[in-house]
Design a protein that fits this description.
alpha/beta, 3 domains, nine-stranded mixed β-sheet, 23 strands, 23% helix, four-stranded mixed β-sheet, stress response, Ribosomal Protein S5, domain 2, Rossmann fold
Length: 483
């Protein structure tokens, strides 16, 4: 007889839909409370998330030190012990076999951890996780992929095309939670992939598949199973049109790790970001390249975000382009910013942004016009990044400003120059972190001059740094010495 632990099952549904005594109502998305039911939450503006709350049972006696011992003893899962006596061996991360994903996770999957991977349709979530499951099976850890969006034959065809077929990689096509847990009980995998959480339903909750109640109940059951069996679990989640994870906000609080898979449909570059990670850094990024043979990690993305670069180094620039170095987690990314300024025939000039924060670009344009004395009020301005990368940190401000000025003057910035620094409303150039790391990455690609904030620290040997205090100084040095 096997002594393995049983798979936790969801509980049966209880009475709901009516207000009980003074329980009130609460939004399952943001937690806002109300005295009466409304179809739309007044705080987060979500529909169908306000539910009746059962009031807690009133205690028969006041809890005091005298009657604590008189209460019936509850069953504890494990006795309390000193923190120093806790064994952490079973909680150490295990590599997934995909280096870039291990970088984001902080070393790999932790047994019993639940990971939520969200991304737009067609970005490659299923392909990535199929590769991860195949690597897990190859290393000797059995993996189970449960798909609710495709048939088992469709997944098998993709696995054959990408080479992700292994005897220890199991596949099941199910949309019922009870059936999913039955597969887990029979296969006993070390890694479970559920694609996707919005397609799985349970009879223990009301509502249609993908609804708030269904997603919450299914996720809670999967978390209980993962913790009880020490089974790493990856849940695929959909996103809304604004890029946030679909479903209740509680979903992100329940899981251990939240990953976002980003990428443009017309670009082969894919980025994995961690917005929450209980076992590692939450600001790391992994780079992948999508191809006909599947998805592969890109350990060194140098040159992917530059339009005029070859193996020998940077090429001569064109008007309206400037190179900067962003830092994602601990990884420096050399990226190119492009700006195009053209006369406008409309009453209100257009501002179009791609890969940059539109509000920050608008602020930089105002600083360029006021502090740099560049007229932009009657011109359309277009700003974008190269290669599909998204730059959100302020260190790219100076490059955006110089690219705009270069486009206005129709004069290219030298190809070996980079610009790093945050630009304030007074036109000052503020310091940013990890300047030495940024300069080292740029020097390795052939850049030899850099405009940096004051007190930037030492630069790599044979690289010239020019400290600029404000935008005016940066403009005087952007075209070279003596310009």
């Amino acid at each position: 007889m096997s002594s393995r632990p049983p798979v936790p099952r969801p509980s049966t549904p209880g009475p709901s839909g009516s207000r009980v005594a003074s329980g009130g109502f609460r939004c399952s998305g943001c937690g806002a409370e109300a005295v009466k039911w409304t179809g739309r939450c007044p705080r987060c503006q979500a529909w169908g998330t306000v539910e009746a709350q059962v009031p807690p049972a009133r205690a028969a006696h006041r809890v005091s030190s005298r009657n604590l011992t008189a209460r019936p003893a509850a069953v504890v899962t494990a006795p309390a012990r000193p923190m120093s006596d806790v064994d952490v061996t079973t909680a150490r991360s295990r590599p997934t076999g995909v280096t870039e994903l291990d970088r984001v996770l902080g070393g790999g999957f932790v047994p019993g951890a639940v990971v939520l991977l969200a991304g737009e349709p067609g970005v490659g979530k299923s392909t990535l996780l199929l590769e991860v499951a195949a690597r897990s099976a190859t290393s000797g850890a059995r993996a189970l992929v449960v798909t609710g969006e495709e048939s088992a034959a469709q997944v098998r065809l993709r696995a054959g095309r990408t080479g992700a077929v292994h005897p220890e990689l199991w596949i099941a096509a199910e949309t019922d939670l009870e059936a999913l847990l039955t597969h887990v009980d029979e296969v006993r995998p070390k890694l479970l992939v559920v694609d996707s959480i919005q397609t799985i339903t349970t009879a223990a909750a009301e509502g249609a598949a993908g609804g708030v109640t269904q997603v919450r109940e299914v996720t809670a059951a999967l978390i209980r199973a993962a913790k009880a069996l020490d089974m790493a679990t990856v849940i695929v989640g959909h996103v809304t049109k604004d890029g946030t994870v679909a479903g209740p906000r509680l979903l992100e609080h329940l899981v251990d790790v939240v990953l976002h898979f980003e990428g443009e449909r017309h670009s082969s570059l894919r980025l994995v970001r961690a917005s929450k990670n209980r076992f590692g850094p939450s600001d790391e990024v992994g780079c992948f390249e999508m191809g006909d043979g599947g998805i592969r990690g890109v350990a060194d993305p140098s040159g992917l975000f530059l339009s005029r670069w070859h193996d020998g180094g940077p090429m001569d620039g064109v008007a309206g382009t400037c190179v900067t170095v962003a830092v994602e987690g601990r990884r420096p990314l050399v990226a190119e910013v492009q700006a195009l300024v053209a006369s406008s025939a409309a009453a209100v000039p257009r501002r179009a942004v791609s890969g940059l924060d539109s509000a920050r670009v608008a602020m930089i344009l105002a600083v360029v016009e006021r502090r740099g004395r560049i007229q932009l009020g009657k011109s359309d301005v277009y700003a974008a990044t190269v290669g599909g990368v998204r730059l959100a940190e302020p260190a790219a401000d100076l490059a955006i400003a110089l690219a705009t000025i270069s486009s206005v003057e129709d004069r290219p910035i030298p190809g070996d120059l980079i610009a790093i620094g945050e630009v304030g409303l007074a036109g000052e150039v503020r310091s940013v972190g990890a300047v030495r790391r940024r300069l080292t990455a740029a020097f390795r690609l052939g850049f030899r001059r850099a405009l940096v904030p004051p007190d930037a620290g030492p630069a790599p040997e044979h690289m010239t740094t020019i400290e600029v205090c404000d935008l005016g100084q940066a403009i005087r040095h952007m075209y070279g010495p003596g310009e």
